[in-house]
């Protein structure tokens, strides 16, 4: 694992919506450069930037048409390199978003693959033998060229799946992982990674990392595939970080990734905490964290305890935290997010309580996700400081509802969510027990609205974290002698005779 990941706190930037500097209504690389000092001042020392490669933007850039060229809407390759350099000047790191599972139908590889005549790209994608045979249970596109066959797609119909082979081959058109087509795809993706790492990026967040090998029910083929890629990275770029969108840490960490995200789908119960009918972090106190804790403990055990399991505040695919949590509920939630093992990821704007913008028409394949991708709100200037374009040109409308949060307002208020997040990040980086690779032992699992309590530990310290989102006082029996309060929000706990009395809607860190 890259050494810098141990104290990394990531800030996710959706480049379209962060800062526009040329008044076209879309964010750009220069806008990110202009706001790097803001990110550093918050306390984040690493960035994950969503896809920035050339694309027709049918899926917000997750439909790549050229892996080697920056999308002109953001700037040039030279501008992107300058972003890398400016990030490094500030002692920070940056991950690009790699989309290895599919391309756009506009990609030159796919256009060559469409041809009936055999060529080097014939097997770059997954095709059936004839137009009448659809891949069972898998979406496909067909009838769009002279080539006989149906082409597998990964999600939208304009995203043909790249060919990494099948773990179990049941049809004549299903190629094994060691066939020439799949091997050539791996070689090309390694070239893409090498190109950007040599230019200065610090690694990749990998989109749909667990889905590359098809007909792979237990993920064994995809694990093996990534295990073949990791040695090249370790040899040529030992400090490069790899973060997977997989959602199953026991598989992704075994595959060679440094970190794995918990996702809004899959087995983690992550959204039991934030995004369901009764979130655990709601002050109503009707939610439960127990299923999350059970799965988290099992995942850590399978991953070897030291694997970094990342719990993001959100991302471009989820509802905003502030859609279901409000006011001090967000502060208590961040006390949890920023004291758990694994590198935290803060989705841009979550640190000021940026809201989900309701009832928007889909933009670039966003659909229900569009409301979580609205522009960052900096101040009370034109378009809330995001862009000098006329409002109708904005990529997505800003949140124009009353009391819409801005960085400017939050920085004026010492009791704001912004300052609470900043304080928690600073505290995390001051204590070895709270860093990414520190141990964790759960004392209370937050069942049925009860407090969530855990002990973070390193070689030289132990810290007790006690979180009680519910609108009621609680009492816990906690082993140990906890005398020093490092942090509290919502009121301090009272420690007496091995019991801890916990105020409602509070979070405390004790040593």
UniProtKB/TrEMBL annotation:
GO terms under biological process: carbohydrate metabolic process
Residue stretches making up the Glycosyl hydrolase family 13 catalytic domain: 12-428
SUPFAM superfamilies, per the entry: (Trans)glycosidases (SSF51445), Glycosyl hydrolase domain (SSF51011)
InterPro entries: GH, GH13_cat_dom, Glyco_hydro_b, O16G_dom_2
Source organism, top-level taxon: Bacteria
Pfam families documented for this protein: Alpha-amylase
Protein name: Alpha-glucosidase C-terminal domain-containing protein
